[in-house]
């Protein structure tokens, strides 16, 4: 510690001597910036926004359903909500201090922590994250869950979690060369396939990990269910179907018939991430899977949902090929039906 103090004093002394020898109209901004840079060099790394906690190595992922964690109590959520509100305001100063853009939804904090606070964050997401992490999937560790009971505030739940290392993948029009990809590709496939072997509470019910509503960006109000059976699920999906946007009645009828094929055969219920997109995957410098993020849509869905939701857009894009390689090829017919369903219902949720 003494050496750090001595070094700091020496740097300050040299900076002062340099600027005192310059003309009086010297730019003070440069002076203070130099002092600030010196100060940053003395800050422990754990305080900086770049600090991350190690990601769990993807060695073996549990193929047996992990226990469903207990839902945090109402009093606990209320107390943590107050604490998270203070962290929100603290982050404004923290981001300003480090020259970061303040994101009110993904809130940066010291000690390798992040506070997620969006209108889609929920207790169900907390449970899905905890189940996935318990199974060995590289998911941030949940530290606390806060609830915010404010009439004018749509962001009702916040999650304090660890920050994972790595960078997000970006979709492109490049062809997928499996041999050229890093080990992350096989590791991600292992995670997805392991989840799909978990035993659901029932092969009939479609719901969140705790039996409540599901959140999805592809339905009105971005929330649906829970559903006691598959019939109720499909009725909800098809309810907002509209002829709007179709050039003719025949075109609408043909599209509707294609979408209806989803109901032609029974499907098993599988545990599903629900938003399997490139930007939700973190890769480290060695090419290994470092993070599997955003579990707000996680829950029990029909087996095709994971793949068709990920492949509805960007046909033949790089990520489309990744998803197809991981198992989406088994659901090509369902994909065409799901795309038809999207054409029928997109007007019901695109504005939200």
Write structural notes for this entry:
With 352 residues, this protein is an alpha+beta fold. It has three domains: 2-42, no CATH class; 74-165; 168-348, Aminoglycoside 3'-phosphotransferase, Chain: A, domain 2, CATH 3.90.1200. The chain is built from ten helices and eleven strands. It has helices at residues 2-20, 28-41, 74-97, 123-134, 184-195, 230-238, 249-260, 305-311, 318-326, 332-345; strands at 106-109, 113-116, 142-147, 157-162, 167-168, 214-215, 223-224, 269-272, 281-283, 289-292, 299-302. The strands form four sheets. The protein has a four-stranded antiparallel sheet, with helices on both faces. A three-stranded antiparallel sheet has the order 5-9-10, with helices on one face. A two-stranded antiparallel ribbon has the order 6-7. The chain is globular, with a radius of gyration of 25 Å. The model is unreliable at 1-6 (pLDDT under 50). Residues 117-318 form the Aminoglycoside phosphotransferase domain. This is Aminoglycoside phosphotransferase domain-containing protein. Pfam families: APH (PF01636).
Gist of the model:
The protein has helices at 2-20, 28-41, 74-97, 123-134, 184-195, 230-238, 249-260, 305-311, 318-326, 332-345, and strands at residues 106-109, 113-116, 142-147, 157-162, 167-168, 214-215, 223-224, 269-272, 281-283, 289-292, 299-302. It is of the alpha+beta class and 352 residues long. Strands 1-2-4-3 form a 4-stranded antiparallel β-sheet, with helices on both faces.
